[in-house]
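Researcher: Structure for this, please.
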Amino acid sequence: MVRVTAVFPLLCAIVALILSLLCIFAGSKTGYIENGDILTLNTSMLGRTILNTSKSASPLLSTIEGHIEGDINGAIADFAKELNIHDFYSAHILDYCEGYYTPSAVSNATAHPTKNVTRCSNHTGLFHFDPTAILQSELKTGVNLSDLHWPSAIEDTIRTVETASKAMFVLYCIGVAFTGLAVLGAFIAVAGGGRLSAFVNVMLDFLAFFSLGIASAIATVIAVKVTNAVNNHGSDVGLSATKGRTFQGMTWAAVVLMLIACFAWIFECVAGRKKQVTYLKDGEEGRLY
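Model: Predicted structure, token format:
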């Protein structure tokens, strides 16, 4: 006998599983949910303070500066490209993506910058986004981040959240595993099951909700701490960062759906118990089966 009331929590678990997987694999390749980033570091304006100084710390920077004098917006964009760095770096759970803003990194009355991802790094379990190491590896030989006045406070924050980012990955994996089991358990319950199957699904849904909830909370804290550090300490050197709204929407939607599914199965347990209370006639006491 089909258990119609179990269809709703089943659908909740399926959607939560899909959203959780999208969060994990967002940005896994160029063109795949590129806006599902945890945060994005905007480096298109990095080096603008160098343009405003009379003498650069590096001879190479002085040479580059001499090549791009002119319109300030164009100069800043050319300065970044001359250094071999990209306009933005988006952090995901398994990797990071980089690219340029089109048509320009600078917004004006006729055009608004949009992301054009050119490359994503290899998938890595327990991945940790380290923009300092990434930028330093891409800079031209002879130029260091210290020449660009890279704030040490940003690197300190990145190191602080390293352990948290790895724990986040593990918890997402655990959450997806329990969500998958919850979907399987819900399918079995829909096909026909009593209070025991409902109770098992309550436990599976709660564990999925708890794991995904903690993982989402960690991801949110990381996004807030890093973006605040970048915007507070990096604005003077042309750095800025934004939190990924799409990622936040997907991950917290999955958490809410698993909580709803958990309550739905609790209702199934209570309703199933009531249905099994039989009051016999002839003055006998009710018996629970």
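Researcher: Any notable elements?
Model: The longest helix spans residues 195-233. The first strand starts at residue 39 and ends at 42.
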